[in-house]
Amino acid sequence: MNDIPTISWIEAGQSRSARWHSENGAPPPKRVVIADDQMSADSAYRLACEGTALLWRGDFQNARQLLQALARRIDRAPRKPAKIAAPTPSPTEAFHLHRQAQAQRARVLAMLLLPFEQDFRIPLRRAPDVRQACNEAYGAPAGPFVASLRELLGLIGAHEWRKNGVDIPALGQRIHPHYGVFSPVRGEYVGLVADAPLPAMQASLAFDIGTGSGVLAAVLARRGIKDVVATDQDPRALACARDNLARLKLDHQVALLQVDLFPPGRAPLIICNPPWLPARPSSAIEHAIYDPDSRMLRGFLGGLAAHLEPGGEGWLILSDLAEHLGLRPRAELMAMIDAAGLKVLGRIDVKPQHPKVSDASDPLHAARAAELTSLWRLAVA
């Protein structure tokens, strides 16, 4: 019990506490005050910036409006004018500044807290019924707790994604991502796997390393590969993939295995879509985007030769955004491939079409505008 984080505060002159829940593993705030509809947005913003959390006792919808007001104040926060004009940051500096700003924004917005009852009900006026969303993300209730409103809104958004699904043209059906599992909204990488010519000796088996939602395993199965072994080390991802493959009636073709990277044995086709940026994730969902020191990329390349059948191919699906941001030069990637005893048979490129490509206000716009997503066809040298 001592390992369960708790949050403490004073209310009506009495000391109170509750279990603290944070999916990102954030520690409970040390300073907590009670807040309600009488608190102004300016006061709430000042307290949140100072690191004081606000445990909400007012109307739920007013809490949502307050969170939006806090976000507006963060986004328009005045910056101290520089006496000397600062030089334009390099792409790498722009990336790190952007990440720092995102982290600070998240810290401030996470200061608005909500109470939850035993069954995930929120004891506030006009509070929605969030029991299903919480059950999907948290599992069975474990008692009353306190969590941030921002986290709850993420749960609600994930519940809507899971309910409605994401249209995948390559499948002609939808994939339903679960909470904490990356949604395949960037369809260009799915299209690469759907359209790339299968290896000449490809027949009956493929491995999908880091399957996530199961979308690429499903594409391979739909392309006629008799048996697909899809791996992931995240139980949430495997549960999500299992659900999607059953919906698509492909669960008889795809076996799911909880391992880090490769399953036992060899296959004539092995594919992997690792996280694209070598940086540290700040939340569970960011593990699909950020790969510290390119750990998964290095692991896939380093183990590929030992798991490929003679004459087989490894398909690495990778964005070059890290190159445009100065985080991982092309020469470093080529050196990894060479050191792993591999050779490049070919490469298929596609231009991403997501909205940020054309958003000139994005701090990383120049890099995103130049980005290509590629399917690298690799073989044993």
Automatic annotation (TrEMBL):
Coiled coil: none annotated. It comes from the Bacteria. Keywords: Methyltransferase, S-adenosyl-L-methionine, Transferase. Pfam families: MTS (PF05175). Residues 196-280 form the Methyltransferase small domain. PANTHER family: HEMK METHYLTRANSFERASE (PTHR18895), MTRF1L RELEASE FACTOR GLUTAMINE METHYLTRANSFERASE (PTHR18895:SF74). This is Methyltransferase. It comes from Undibacterium arcticum. The lineage of its organism: Bacteria, Pseudomonadati, Pseudomonadota, Betaproteobacteria, Burkholderiales.
